[in-house]
Design a protein that fits this description.
Blueprint lengths: L1 E4 L2 E8 L4 E12 L3 E5 L6 H9 L5 E4 L8 H8 L2 E4 L1 H4 L13 H7 L4 E3 L6 H7 L1 H4 L8 H4 L3 E4 L11 H13 L13 E3 L2
Parallel strand pairs: 4-5, 5-6, 7-8
Antiparallel strand pairs: 1-2, 2-3, 3-4, 8-9
Length: 196
């Protein structure tokens, strides 16, 4: 692994299928509430696994979207770590299989508690302008997250959809949204905003 910032490590694996590099991130924070975290892990070499163990092991595996499950289960088994991902994404995955595309009807069936919108290439203002597409869907207003005002917009362009150090800030944004009573990193209204 290479340290790209203080206490932020990365490694890459080339995917022959996709013809691109998959990047994973290891953040050995030793944070009292969640410990060390790995984000979107591709396969890890024995050398990198040993480095993770030296830096305090892995307690949390964070998945930024359902297509990034990758090598999570192997790390979970090795380190007895918890896999964390948006509940809507978690409901769509099957062990050992690639995650399917999600149709709006599937979202209706799953009826998530929280919806976090983070489209690639969209800042918060553009995302807000495009939300009319979802609001026009017949069952949108019946979703639990909508009824409970738990819909959030993020700056997917600057954070979630870019590899590199901004993934740390992406994690902070998710923590602020999902655990507002415990975390405030100062991203509200710049990296994310409550939609309703």
């Amino acid at each position: 692994m290479d340290e790209i910032l203080k206490d932020v490590y990365t490694w890459s694996v080339f995917s022959e299928e996709k013809k691109l590099d998959f990047n994973g991130y290891f953040i050995p924070t030793q944070h009292a509430l969640f410990g060390n975290a790995v984000i979107d892990p591709p396969p890890v070499s024995d050398l990198d696994l040993a480095q993770m163990e030296t830096l305090g092991s892995v307690q949390q595996i964070l998945i930024t979207n359902r297509n990034h499950i990758r090598w999570s289960r192997e790390l979970q088994e090795k380190f007895d770590a918890e896999i964390r991902m948006n509940s809507a994404d978690a409901q769509f995955g099957s062990k050992g299989k690639h995650s399917p595309w999600m149709e709006f009807e599937d979202l209706i069936k799953r009826d998530p508690d929280v919806i976090i919108v983070m489209p690639c290439g969209y800042n918060i203002d553009k995302t807000k302008r495009e939300m009319g597409t979802l609001r026009k869907m017949s069952e949108w207003d019946n979703l639990k997250a909508v009824q409970n005002s738990d819909v959030y917009l993020t700056d997917g362009n600057q954070y979630f959809n870019r590899p590199g150090p901004r993934l740390v800030e992406s994690l902070e944004i998710l923590m602020e949204i999902l655990y507002a009573d415990k975390f405030d990193f100062g991203h509200k209204n710049t990296g994310w905003r409550k939609y309703i």
